[in-house]
Amino acid sequence: MIGHDVLFAMLPEHLLLLGIVLLVIVEIVGRWQRASLVVALVFVGAAAVAAARLSFDADAAAPFGGHFSVDPAGLLAKAMVLALALPVLLMSRGEFGDGATDPDHTESEFAILLLSALYGV
Fold first, then answer.
1. Torsion over CA of 109, 114, 118 and 120, rounded to 10 degrees?
2. What are phi and psi of 64, to 5 degrees?
């Protein structure tokens, strides 16, 4: 039961990590560059909803005592930061090449960096 509580308390982080992994796969495959925005939006939105839900349920846990803990106020702040990242992703649409016209910068690279930064928050 303890393992389930730890996984549930870290749900927003797990969703962001899964999004990062999928974006890396999209970048490696290279065929679905347009899908990177959708993947990023879905996983950031899901992480925001998960953080808000955990906050409203008044969940407080310390999965890694002294290193990582969650409380309702922190989860609400996390949900707001994640929700504010959604317009950033939408505004970045079209700013980067599709990989064919500008092989040095792609949309999926930006999405990977943004989700990684959000994961760190």
1. 60
2. -125, 90
Q: Which two tokens stand for residue 112?
A: 């990977």
DSSP 121: -
Show Cβ contacts of residue 40 under 8 Å, excluding neighbours closer than 6 positions.
19, 23, 89, 111, 114, 115
Q: How many CA atoms lie within 13 A of 67 on its CB side?
A: 4
| Nearest C-alpha neighbor of 75 from the set 46, 57, 54 | 54
- Look up the pTM and report it: 0.83
Amino acid symbol at 107: E
Give 11's contacts (C-beta < 8 A, 6+ positions apart).
47, 50, 51, 54
Q: Tell me if 39 sits within 8 A of 22, measured CB to CB.
A: yes
Q: Comparing C-alpha atoms, which of 91, 120, 121, 97 is closest to residue 109? A: 97
Query: CA 67, CA 32: separation in Å to the nearest integer?
Result: 37
DSSP-based three-state secondary structure for 62? strand
54-105 confidence digits (pLDDT tens): 888 876 666 666 667 778 888 899 999 999 999 999 998 777 655 555 555 5
